[in-house]
Amino acid sequence: MYKEMVEHYQVDYTAGGACQNTMRVAQWMVKDKNMFAFMGCIGKDKFGEILESKAKEAGVLVSYQYHETLPTGTCAVAITDQGANRSLCAYLSAANCFSREHLDLLVNQTIINEAQHFYITSFFLTVSPPSIMQVAEHACEKNKTFCMNLSAPFLCQIFKEPMMQAMPYVDILFGNEQEAAAFSQEQGFGTEDVEEIALKISELPKKNKLKPRIVIITQGENPVVLVKEGKITKYPAISVKPEEIVDTNGAGDAFVGGFLAQFVHEKSLDVCIKAGIYAATEVIKKSGCTLPEKPNFVL
Prior knowledge:
The chain is an alpha/beta fold. It is 38% helix and 19% strand. The chain contains eleven helices and twelve strands. The protein has a six-stranded mixed beta sheet, sandwiched between helices. The protein has a two-stranded parallel ribbon with strand order 1-3. A two-stranded parallel ribbon has the order 2-4. The chain is globular, with a radius of gyration of 18 Å. The termini are far apart.
């Protein structure tokens, strides 16, 4: 498929990876470099070099695990209807080989110990659940914030067991309406109503009783749903003209990036959500998860 796309279509290359996208966007929203760090596994190849240079250029502190033989993971994205519809075909390769032992390196132990907030995507459930649990337990023990993204409907279904193993440690859960519906079906919630689903997720068992779970569900052009301590709040999306939409791929990643950029500065949830909406709105106007030179986020 990759070969056919390159030979027959105009192809744009952008640095990606769902979690790394989020870190790049979050870093873009703040002034100080290396406020956000990323760990993942890449190959010792050209794509790996590009990925690392783009992340560092964005100011993200990266600590990759390098695979000796497998190439860096790639993802083909086909876009139709002026960016309204997208289809992704991933070749995980080296990205699928991250091991828990990488966390034990002194440089990574330092990053983990100094960090106050952690974010994982559920894509990582397919790679190294032991790594997730090690960080989740550390966050719980030290009263740090542990965030997770549902990431895709199939993860709520096929990787239900490791997801629910991590769920009691989740302080902030992100997802979109399709992921929420899949999660609800798998958990037997008996509802397709996004607000009800978010409420039920917030009430699932939780390890750290000092932090009430926050659940945030995006719905494209429809309002973002926030649930905290039984209260439901909705935030309208920013209206974007159809002709301005280039690529909706990366919108969810950008939303979380914008949110986290404000959250680490202890801004109110209102500000965090609005920053997330702003970042997502900017990203869909460009190809891939790319951004304007400087943010222009104002309340």
